[in-house]
């Protein structure tokens, strides 16, 4: 009951399509990225497993057709319905955010290395955190599995318990 909608997102690159991380490392970034987003409220989805599989298959066919017409046509998604465009950000604001991000991450790593080297308390903190993450990965199979188990424990769902008792 924690899912209210499924979002179908199609991504297309009209000019250059990055195939691997190597393209990104060489600076071959996409000049434009187009998104087509469609929201399906959960109450409109089929309930049976077979119908849901068929529904997903139809969405993939639509997505393939959308991409085919994008790359063979005007390199733009056609859409019906309502579109929501976020408010524009100024170029200056974007540049300031980029600069501050680069400055932060450039200083963060050497600072943490220095703290680990100088302070034993920080060293122990990092060692304990690394051990905890490795153990939870080995024991539970990942943090997301542990999180789901905690969610199920804290939000006991009566209909699941009823099915178990039958």
Automatic annotation (TrEMBL):
**Domain of life of the organism encoding this protein:** Eukaryota
Q: What are the record's GO terms for cellular component?
A: endoplasmic reticulum
Q: Transmembrane stretches, by residue range?
A: 124-146
> Where's the Acyltransferase C-terminal domain?
23-95
**GO biological process, any:** phosphatidylinositol acyl-chain remodeling
What does the UniProt keyword field contain? Answer: Acyltransferase, Lipid biosynthesis, Lipid metabolism, Membrane, Phospholipid biosynthesis, Phospholipid metabolism, Transferase, Transmembrane, Transmembrane helix
The Gene Ontology terms for molecular function here are: acyltransferase activity
Q: Which InterPro entries match?
A: Acyltransf_C
Family annotation (PANTHER family): 1-ACYLGLYCEROL-3-PHOSPHATE ACYLTRANSFERASE-RELATED (PTHR10983), LYSOCARDIOLIPIN ACYLTRANSFERASE 1 (PTHR10983:SF16)
The UniProt entry's sequence similarity note says: Belongs to the 1-acyl-sn-glycerol-3-phosphate acyltransferase family.
Name under which the protein is recorded: Acyltransferase C-terminal domain-containing protein
């Amino acid at each position: 009951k924690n899912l209210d909608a499924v979002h179908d997102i199609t991504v297309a690159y009209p000019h250059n399509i990055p195939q691997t991380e190597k393209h990104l490392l060489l600076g071959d970034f996409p000049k434009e990225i187009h998104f087509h987003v469609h929201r399906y409220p959960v109450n409109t989805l089929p309930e049976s497993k077979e119908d849901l599989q068929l529904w997903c298959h139809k969405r993939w066919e639509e997505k393939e057709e959308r991409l085919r017409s994008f790359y063979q046509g005007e390199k733009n998604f056609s859409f019906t319905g309502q579109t929501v465009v976020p408010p524009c950000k100024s170029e200056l604001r974007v540049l300031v955010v980029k600069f501050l991000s680069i400055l932060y991450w450039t200083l963060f790593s050497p600072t943490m290395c220095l703290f680990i080297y100088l302070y034993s308390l920080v060293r122990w903190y990092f060692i304990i955190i690394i051990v905890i993450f490795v153990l939870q990965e080995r024991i539970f199979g990942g943090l997301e599995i542990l999180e789901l188990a905690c969610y199920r424990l804290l939000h006991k769902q009566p209909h699941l318990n009823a099915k178990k008792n039958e």
